[in-house]
Amino acid sequence: MVMPITDVREISRIAYGFMGSKALFSALNLDLFSRLAAGKKSLEKLVEETGVASNRLRTLLAALTSIGLVVRDDNGYQNAPASERYLVREAPAYFGDYYRYQIDRQIYPALLHLDSGIAGDATGLAFETLAGLTSDPDEADAFTRAQHSGSMGPALMLAKTLNLEGVRALLDVGCGSGAFSIALCQRNPELRATVLDFPNVIAVAERFVTEANLQNRVVYLRGDAVDTPWPISQDAVLMSYLLSAVAEPAIPLLFRKAWHALRPGGRLLIHDFMLDADETGPASAALFFLQYLSYRVDGVCFSAETLAAQLEGLGFKGISDQIVIPSITKLVVCAKPKQI
């Protein structure tokens, strides 16, 4: 249960939260955390490396120190443990590009249009549609590369925990960068994937698939998931971060398309932001749903239980769910019956 706040300082913490996020983004754009990876550095050394004037850089470092991203003592500045692990460019778990490209450059400015989305004013949205966002090759490239940074972690987690024995043909609908198909194919040598997304997104996915040396196991399908015909006789259909991005009426339509694409006994895998059953949280998932209202007025939030009720009504069986990213995403799994 979410505890209601009782103090005006807690309200202020929410109201001023964007200031901390912008401090993080500014530091990432300066590659400041990578500069501190070699060890503690003085303000003078950081001024020399970044080219930022001492008064301005000292102000940024004070902000970063105040929110715990940087540690300061008499000998200089160094990364906090989490910053060292996730915000240093060469670190294996580097996550900075997701924050820089998708959160700072796309989601953050899009939220300036949230009032229009909540009011139902489609003329004031950040983008006409996600298809509109990805119609520009540069925007599609930035969006998809950032998405890849954010998706590879959960994709690898899912690949480790998901038993795909007997699955040879996977349809990845709304594939984005192809991160989930890449991770699943790497984990399952017999798996072949067909990935479906907008043309400019597929162009970026092709690069990531080639880098993973999986180009002989992935087929590309360019189009809108809602309108484009899907290939049939699939062993599994995956939708990751797709349902949260489409119109509410499109969700049952996508479920019906998955039903027709699956062979009898095939599985539907739905990975997305998910609310708790009582829809009181978790906050991270709820806020991700909210930001989609900056892009479209017909989106909807949902829980695993909400989806399960719809899936059951369409005839899917064996519906279950599991946490993928704690407090953010879940995986719903169900199957088309072997005999109908």
Give an account of the 3D structure.
The chain is an alpha/beta fold. It folds into two domains: 8-92, Arc Repressor Mutant, subunit A, CATH 1.10.10.10; 98-335, Rossmann fold. The chain has helices at residues 8-15, 17-29, 32-35, 43-50, 54-66, 81-86, 96-110, 114-119, 130-134, 137-161, 179-187, 199-211, 250-261, 283-291, 304-314; strands at residues 70-73, 76-79, 169-173, 192-197, 218-222, 234-240, 262-273, 317-325, 329-335. Strand 4 (192-197), helix 12 (199-211) and strand 5 form a beta-alpha-beta unit. Helix 10 (137-161) runs parallel beside helix 11 (179-187). The longest helix is centred in the middle third of the chain and has 25 residues, at 137-161. The mean pLDDT is 93.
Keywords:
340 residues, 46% helix, two-stranded antiparallel sheet, Rossmann fold, 17% strand, 2 domains, 7-stranded mixed sheet, alpha/beta, Arc Repressor Mutant, subunit A
- What's the CATH topology label of the largest domain? Rossmann fold
Mean pLDDT value: 93
Q: Low-confidence segments, ≥5 residues, pLDDT <50?
A: none
- Looking at the overall shape, the CATH architecture of the largest domain is 3-Layer(aba) Sandwich
| CA-based gyration radius | 22 Å
CATH superfamily caption of the largest domain: Vaccinia Virus protein VP39
What's the number of extended β-strand segments? 9
Beta fraction of the residues? 15-25%
List the strand order in the largest sheet.
5-4-3-6-7-9-8
Number of helices: 15
| The CATH top-level class label of the largest domain | Alpha Beta
Shape: globular
Through-space gap between termini: 41 Å
Order of helices and strands: HHHHHEEHHHHHEHEHEEHEHHEE
Percent of residues in helices: 40-55%
How many domains? The number is 2
Could you describe the largest sheet, including whether it forms a barrel? 7 strands, mixed
Class per helix and strand makeup? alpha/beta
